[in-house]
Specification:
CATH class of the largest domain: Alpha Beta
Number of domains: 3
Structural class: alpha/beta
Oligomer: single chain
Length: about 375
Amino acid sequence: MRSRSIYCHMIYQGSNQKHIDVRRALIQYAQTYGIKAASRKFGCSRNTVRLWLKRFKDGGASSLLDKTRAPKNIPHKLNKEIEEQIIQAREQVPCYGPKRLKWFFGIDASEGSIYRVLKEKKLLRKKRKKYQKKNDLREVKAKYRALSHHQLDVKYLFDISNYWPQMQDYNLPKYQYTIRDTKSGMIYLGFAKEVSKTNSHLFLEQYFKVLQASGIKLEEVIIQTDNGSEFGGTFRHLDRNDFVEMIQTKGAKHQYIPPGMCNANADVESIHNTIEEEFFDLENFPSKNAFMNKVSGYQLYYNLVRPNFSKKGKTPMQIIEEEQRGNINNLLQECVDLDQLFRIKYKIPKRGQHLPEFPVLALIF
């Protein structure tokens, strides 16, 4: 480094202590060899040397510190009354930002000025990370009772590369109906070849029978769904919603997630991804019976054996047992074949259709 750049290098890169040390050396050199020699030695103007000599003479070593360059008079600076108004408004409604504070409280200041006051007074809320929000939700969900709050959704199976060819060859189900208990993570699965409100009814009726057989009162049960048509979501504005009505007649409660908030059903959505990776991407199904047997086996494995590390490494049944909720043996059911259940309930033959006898043929014979 050349000697003439010493002072500039100190100004732009040095710390405050470095500033003091260099200025002290500059003053000592100027007092010994003169102003012009110090100017050449430290690579600065003679006026700079005179400035620091005068300041040192008037104020001593403390005068070598950097002085603020802020203007002494700021005509547009907020007065104390407006600052107090901003602080009081923020304390009253901590969730409001500058725009809402200005609008609701009629603050006579720009949004930038309001933000600056909030920042200076350390009234800004620190933005939480995604993992922090997830941890908060886990604490909320951990307060639920097991088998009290459930999420219901439908998974489309025909977009799974390993499953689709088998689905085509062996006429396997295209849709998976899933209920997941929010607290324990227990799953209950049903399969069908179409998405319909009728299948949703049948599936829920079977699940309610399982809960009742296990000793769970349906008055304590909440079923949460998205706004899909299979759950009556398109009829929410009407007085009569037969899907919700069916749940209520059983004694349970129903709630829709807010529109546009798919993450409100995150528990059941996450299990869809898990089942796809752990089951559908790995297994082969030579027939419909083989499919139902294997998927029922996976359901038992998930509920009884597989630890859930987001729930402290416990299985769903361990959580249910800890709360002593219901008869565990009655909860361990096979998956539901909704197509077969539909045929049995409505007495529809497996193939063909019933045709009435023609009157003319009856007269002839």
